[in-house]
Specification:
alpha+beta, 17 strands, Immunoglobulin-like, 4-stranded mixed beta sheet, Glutaredoxin
Length: 376
């Protein structure tokens, strides 16, 4: 399991639209629906913005329990409907009339959303993802994995991890095919940014083709620029590329460049004291380091801790005797941003020329790869 940054991607300055209307004039969209609540009050609608500048607007509930609100938009956006402070619905609004019906009497808080292609695509893909998580093929491997882990069978654990990822990628292929056919949209951007949905490195072609859609249809969207930067990072950190430079201070304050380790195979290891899975993986890295350090192998650990004391304590506790650097900025670490790290543990193996040869090798897989390139 990996530690993920949890976020819901919001957009604040999208600036053109698929109907080729004037950016200055914008367009009108109707949000309407019917409410079934035992008690009534005020309905509010609010655009969710990164800077928190959105202001709620009130919507009048009619006697027949219907409501309707015309919004003037200059960009698509993510909005929040608050029904009487009792039920909140987030939805994407683009260029179509959106109907949101809610039933407060339903124990599950039933919500029906119609008319938003963005919402439909997002919901469809997330439902597919949920089905994948519950796939019998994966559940079976999970159960075997737990049994192997319970008896500390490291070899079996790694075999099952590999089998799980192979099956998971096969299942994910269904989502990838849907995303390949999707038009440039707010939903597509959200889905591609989701760190838990698909493997970005293994689906680089999808990101490149999606960027082409954004640049062709909406070249002035702010998120097109943001997505372009993401694709750039994916390209420069792809297997076969020379790893971007990292230059960060050690606990003693000495700046050590990644490039200073050229001539050796180097494992760039992003980790932190607070990351349980990282700490569990550290003994495997220690074993690999001790086995191969005299054969031209080095570890360059980048901590995403915030506290220097915590960082140093974890280094000592886990017996990590190699190169350690950090700017103590958590996931805002300059190296983490450049390498598009949104989950740890995360590692990259470089050859003697600084070229990326593999990513996220764990346990026996790391040992196997190092044996392959450096010998027993």
């Amino acid at each position: 399991m990996r530690i993920f940054i949890n976020f819901f991607i919001l957009f604040t300055s999208l600036s053109c639209n698929p109907e080729k209307k004037s950016e200055d004039n914008g367009w009108d969209v109707i949000v309407k629906g019917k409410v079934n609540f035992p008690q009534q009050g005020i309905i509010k609608i609010l655009e969710l913005k990164n800077d928190g500048s959105g202001q709620p607007e009130m919507i009048e509930l009619k006697k027949d329990q219907t409501y309707s609100k015309t919004l003037h938009l200059t960009t698509p956006g993510i909005y929040q409907l608050d029904f009487f402070g009792r039920q909140v619905v987030n939805l994407m609004i683009d260029h179509s009339t959106v109907e949101v019906n809610v039933d407060g009497n339903d124990p599950q808080g039933a919500v029906e959303i119609k008319g938003s292609p963005d919402h439909d695509l997002y919901s469809r893909v997330m439902q597919m993802n949920q089905s994948i998580q519950e796939a019998p093929e994966l559940k079976s491997i999970e159960e075997e994995f737990q049994r192997a882990a319970a008896v500390n069978d490291a070899t079996k654990v790694e075999q099952l991890r590999s089998a799980y990822m192979k099956e998971y990628e096969k299942q994910q292929g269904k989502i990838v095919e849907v995303l390949k056919q999707a038009p440039a949209s707010l939903a597509l951007f959200n889905l591609l940014q989701n760190p838990n949905l698909i493997d970005k490195d293994k689906n680089l072609d999808l990101f490149v083709s999606s960027l082409a859609k954004f640049q062709k249809n909406w070249p002035t969207y702010a998120y097109t620029k943001e997505f372009s930067e993401l694709v750039r990072k994916l390209k420069v950190t792809a297997v076969g590329q020379v790893a971007p430079e990292i230059a960060l201070p050690t606990p003693e304050g000495q700046v050590v460049k990644l490039s200073s380790l050229r001539g050796k195979y180097v494992l760039i290891d992003f980790w932190a004291k607070w990351c349980g899975p990282c700490r569990k993986e550290n003994p495997n890295v220690v074993r690999a380091y001790n086995k191969f350090k005299n054969k031209g192998f080095e570890v360059y650990s980048v901590s995403l801790d915030r506290s220097k004391a915590d960082w140093v304590q974890a280094i000592k506790e886990d017996g990590l005797t190699w190169t350690h650097v950090s700017d103590l900025k958590y996931f805002d670490c300059v190296a983490a941003r450049e390498y598009n790290v949104n989950a740890i543990p995360f590692s990259i193996l470089l050859d003697k020329n600084g070229v990326i040869v593999a990513k996220n090798l764990r346990g026996p897989a790391l040992d196997q790869k190092l044996t392959e390139v450096l010998g027993n």
